[in-house]
Amino acid sequence: MTPPKHTIPLFSSTAGQWLKIISMPRGVLHAQFVRVGIGEGEKVRCLERLPGGTIIIQKNRQQIAIGHQLARKIIVLVLGDGEK
Amino acid sequence: MTMSDDTPMKNVNHVEKHRHADLSFLEKRIGKPTIVLAGNPNVGKSILFNELSGMNVEVSNYPGTTVEIIKGHYGDYEVYDTPGIYGVSSFNDEEIVARDIILEADLVINVVDATHLERDLFLTQQLIDMGKKVVVLLNFMDEVKKHDIRIDIKKLSDFLGVEIQPVVAVKRTGFENLPDAIKRAHEGIQRDELHSLLHGMLKMVGSQAEALLVLEGDAVVSARHGVSPANERDEIYIERRNRVNYIVNQILNDTSTATRFSEKLGLWAVRPISGLLIFVLGMYLAYLFVGKFVAQDIVNFTEQELGKNLWEPWIRGRIISLLPESPWWNSILVGEFGVITMTTTYLLFLLLPLVIAFYLVLSLMEDSGYLPRLATMVDRLLSGLGLNGRAVIPLILGFGCVTSATITTRLLSSEREKTIATAILQFAIPCSAQLAVIAALLAGAGFAPMFVYTVVILAVLISIGTILNKVLKGESAPLLLDLPPMRLPRLRNVVRKTAIRTFHFMKEASGWFFVGALAVGIAQSTGALQFLERMLIPLTTHWLQLPPEAATAFIMGVVRRDFGAAGLYHMTLTPMQVTVALITITLFVPCIASLIVMMKERGLKEGLIIWIGTWVAAFAIGGLVSQIVI
Q1: Measured between alpha carbons, how far is B492 from B496 in angstroms, rounded to an integer?
Q2: Chain B residues with CB inside 8 Å of A49's CB?
């Protein structure tokens, strides 16, 4: 079963979801994301959403914690089962 | 993937011998070529550094930072270790220091975590783009094998155009080929487009490494050459990322899906319930070690036996025999609170063991990968106070020594966060010197005093953060943290980190403890201290409803925080009077050394405002509680 595609802020994702990053803030933060391997178009998995909206995303073996304020500014597309 | 460059590109040698007269202290070195170790955090650089340079190392502090630079020797080379970084730029102190050392390198040994190639190769490619000679050490090859990850090292070497050496640093395997790899080291391969961009900039700045940083918008490097920083960072970074992703796709086959135990543990550490349990367990172990073993067993011995019984009488005898008889000098230098007697005992026999113990715990938390997870767990809570999760480091350290924690606020990203963290530390965090006395007094006073004390101090802590977060201009930096795998810490690294941190703290702060003691000694001899005490007595007896001697305890708290609390020991107080006295003394002025360090870190004006704030808050809140509960 493949749910319909929709974009949400990373803040609203739930653990286990596969996500494609659509847009993120520019500037220094963007550079820091790109360095550790996270950029627009990348597919990542939401590993954990802590109460309050701190998100941990995983890409391959890499895990990155993102504060809730930042997670609100990152827009992701929730991927269906076949698109991981 | 957007890469089109299937084949490795031709390599071009660049002129790399360009030097400037006014750069860093590294410039002062003469002649010797340098090897610089670079890599992401926790990739095993320190083990390699020890392997290369043996025990003969020099540690220095990079001017204006808490970042230490470690230098050793390997054959004809000078070897520098650098802080762990994800890229060469200037987003924080560590990066600035690493950048300047790497800029001066003749050869960079880039240590790479083979299980995190996608992340780590970004730095590798950046070093190559800088035109540096690079040797890549592929570490953690044992884990690669264990998890059935396949890496085509030959192909990776062809893509990057540099020497690659697989190693298992902890087992020291693969190091035997290092000398040859260093001899064969050469520059790597860049994208063609970047190459032509670099050539344009090279004419203006001279070295390829600096040309790249100017193109990537590094303001400091640009200013050194009097050119304005270019605006190409986003594009260069994205292209580099694409290239790295492409390479990794070509050379890596990682099909293992099994979740490792360390990954599970890592998740438990951040989840609210299991995370809290792990935190409480960890803090309990830390308390047994720091609070019981070091603060009581060890410090009782060092402070009493070594300090009070051996050192103080001995030095007092020496000084009195040397100086002409004068009650003035004697009391300031070798009296009960003398600069030479008390301060030395305090620093060496009380503070030093405690600071070592605290840094040991901190290094263990850091090297195991727990600290970033703790920061993640508390990020949401701290964001309400205008801080992000990283501030957990100075706040924890504050329970050891507020002075050292105040210095550590440097690792926070913005001035506003530094101010908030410093204010919280100075107001509401009791340091270990005080904590033992506070715990003992509260334990004797019963549950209600303990409850009132905890609630009031916590309320003050939260209020300060919340108010400052509202009042101060700007925005705090959000959390963006790479969570390294949980690993068993290496004892040698932990010990080395602890030693370096302790040394720097003692070097940076001890002087101020002497200055503080001298100031207090003079205030005492001139009667200023007694005057202050008399001023405080009406406030103490009427408003706080405490015996007049409590004023003495408060004033002694300025000399040494624990004196204040300890002074309360000998008074006959009701349980609620104990509560009021302890609340007042916790909020009241930090010790004089931490005051001076705070003024140095945060500036005279801000330091004074916080200092006066602690006076006002201590008596206002202490009195308020007193009026309610007594």
Answers
A1: 6
A2: none
Which chain B residues have a beta carbon less than 8 Å from that of A70? 478-480
- Give B42-65 pLDDT, tens digit per residue: 888 888 888 888 767 777 767 666
- End-to-end CA distance of chain B, in Å? 71
CA distance A23 to chain B (A): 14
Mutate which of B95, B370, B376, B388 to disrupt the A interface (most A C-beta within 10 Å)?
A: B376
Confidence bin at B8 (pLDDT 50/70/90): very low
Tally: H helices and E strands in chain B: 30, 11
Q: Which of B95, B123, B237, B480 to probe the A interface (max A CBs under 10 A)?
A: B480
Residues B198, B211: Cα–Cα separation, whole Å: 6
Distance CA B129, CA B195 (A): 8
Query: Cα angle vertex B275, ends B269, B277, to 5°?
Result: 125
The closest CB to that of A64, out of B89, B91, B483, belongs to: B483
User: Which of helix, strand or coil describes residue B322?
Assistant: helix
HEC states along B79-95? EEECCCCCCCCCCCHHH
Q: What is the DSSP track for B294-319?
A: IIIIIHIIIIIIIIIIIIHHHHHHHH
Q: Flag if A48 and B270 touch (Cβ within 8 Å).
A: yes
Q: Which of residues 19-58 of A touch B (CB under 8 A)?
A: 26, 28-37, 39, 47-48, 50-54, 56
Amino acid, single-letter form, for residue B180: D
Q: Which helix (H) or strand (E) holds A77?
A: strand A75-78
B4-28 average pLDDT score? 41
CA distance B403 to chain A (A): 28
Whether residue B10 is predicted with pLDDT greater than 70 in this model: the reply is no
Model confidence, pTM: 0.85
- Residue B434 pLDDT > 90: no
B186 beta partners: B134
Q: At what angle do helices A28-35 and B117-129 cross, to 10 degrees?
A: 110
Side chain identity at B215, as an amino acid letter?
A: L
Q: Is the ipTM of this complex over 0.85?
A: yes
Length of chain B: 630
CB neighbourhood size of B608 (10 A): 14
3-class secondary-structure state, position B110: strand
